[in-house]
């Protein structure tokens, strides 16, 4: 019986075999890799992954789809985690591991931020997402798409927009263009050098009113000396400042305040 896509789970199943082959080609998995697939759905990407991998972890919230996987032809090669990915304990996976998936567009950002907590254990991530989100993730300063999401992720990851995927490659077709992004965590030294609480606070303040100058949005939040140490003029606006400069400001505040 055909599975009825559920809107509450943001289900759009990738069906285009060329896209799936390209996804796998960019991923270049090895038989020795430990891979976690988020949202395997009807198993379109799962099949391609199992052409290379002897076993695979899958995280699926839909109980009907999880049952299909348990009784399907690959059941003996899958470890099925029937759970909301935002509640999944990635510490259950032997590190290091890779993460892939066609993420539900309605919760893609929360998933990306949740995975940050496991960056020490993750080799890389390759996801299908709404193209608009990926454009924001990889945008450079002064671009219209550059914002809080760009800064928060670029500080911790090296990212690349691989290719676009049109709506007709899915069943049912989404109303938006999709794309594939590759994310590689920066070195542990780089990530640990970021005072995360301060960093998050100053980035949120900067973009709280992005049309205003930093001297307004950072008033009472960031000392003038911290901005100067990062080469930032307070007449600038949030979208003009690189992720590296935001990190410098946070580091100055962590050591001087």
Characterization of the model:
With 257 residues, this protein is α/β, with parallel strands linked by helices. It has 2 domains: 7-187, Vaccinia Virus protein VP39 (Rossmann fold, 3-Layer(aba) Sandwich), CATH 3.40.50; 193-256, Helicase, Ruva Protein, domain 3 (Orthogonal Bundle), CATH 1.10.8. The chain is 35% helix and 19% strand. The chain is built from 11 helices and 9 strands. The strands form 2 sheets. A 7-stranded mixed β-sheet has the order 4-3-2-5-6-9-7. A two-stranded antiparallel sheet has the order 1-8. The N and C termini lie far apart (62 Å). The model is unreliable at 3-10 (pLDDT under 50). InterPro entries: KsgA/Erm, rRNA_Ade_diMease-like_C, rRNA_Ade_Mease_Trfase_CS, rRNA_Ade_methylase_Trfase_N, rRNA_adenine_dimethylase, SAM-dependent_MTases_sf. S-adenosyl-L-methionine binds at residues 12, 14, 39, 60, 84, 102. It is found in: Cytoplasm.
List the helices and strands and how they pair.
Elements lengths: L12 E2 L2 H11 L7 E4 L5 H6 L6 E4 L3 H9 L6 E4 L15 E6 L5 H9 L5 E9 H8 L9 H7 L2 E9 L4 E2 L6 E8 L2 H5 L3 H11 L7 H4 L6 H6 L13 H14 L1
Parallel strand pairs: 2-3, 2-5, 3-4, 5-6
Antiparallel strand pairs: 1-8, 6-9, 7-9
Helix pairs in contact: 8-11
Q: What is the rounded distance between the termini?
A: 62 Å
Strand content: 15-25%
For the record, the count of structural domains works out to: 2
Major beta sheet summary: 7 strands, mixed
Q: What name is given to the CATH topology of the largest domain?
A: Rossmann fold
**Discrete helix count:** 11
Q: How many strand elements? A: 9
How do the strands line up in the largest sheet?
Answer: 4-3-2-5-6-9-7
Q: Describe the oligomeric state of these chains in a short phrase.
A: single chain
In N-to-C order, the SSE pattern is EHEHEHEEHEHHEEEHHHHH
Q: Tell me, rounded to a whole number, the average pLDDT.
A: 94
Shape: elongated
């Amino acid at each position: 019986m055909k599975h009825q896509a559920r809107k509450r789970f943001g289900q759009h199943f990738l069906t285009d075999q060329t896209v799936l082959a390209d996804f796998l080609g960019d991923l270049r998995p090895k038989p020795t890799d430990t891979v976690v697939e988020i949202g395997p759905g009807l198993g379109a990407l799962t099949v391609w992954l199992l052409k290379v991998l002897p076993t695979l972890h899958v995280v699926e919230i839909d109980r009907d789809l999880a049952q299909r996987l348990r009784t399907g032809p690959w059941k003996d090669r899958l470890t099925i985690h029937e759970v909301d990915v935002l509640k999944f304990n990635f510490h259950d996976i032997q590190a290091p591991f890779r993460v892939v998936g066609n993420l539900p567009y309605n919760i893609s950002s929360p998933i990306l931020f949740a995975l940050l907590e496991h960056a020490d254990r993750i080799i890389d991530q390759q996801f299908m997402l709404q193209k608009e989100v990926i454009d924001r993730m990889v945008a450079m300063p002064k671009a219209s798409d550059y914002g809080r999401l760009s800064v928060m992720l670029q500080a911790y990851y090296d990212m690349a927009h691989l290719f676009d995927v049109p709506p007709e490659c899915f069943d049912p077709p989404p109303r938006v263009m999709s794309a594939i992004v590759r994310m590689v965590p920066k070195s542990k030294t780089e990530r640990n050098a970021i005072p995360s609480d301060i960093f998050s606070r100053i980035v949120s303040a900067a973009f709280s009113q992005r049309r205003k100058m930093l001297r307004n949005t950072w008033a009472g939040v960031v000392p003038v000396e911290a901005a100067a140490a990062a080469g930032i003029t307070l007449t600038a606006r949030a979208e003009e400042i690189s992720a590296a400069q935001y990190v410098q400001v946070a580091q100055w505040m962590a050591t001087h305040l």
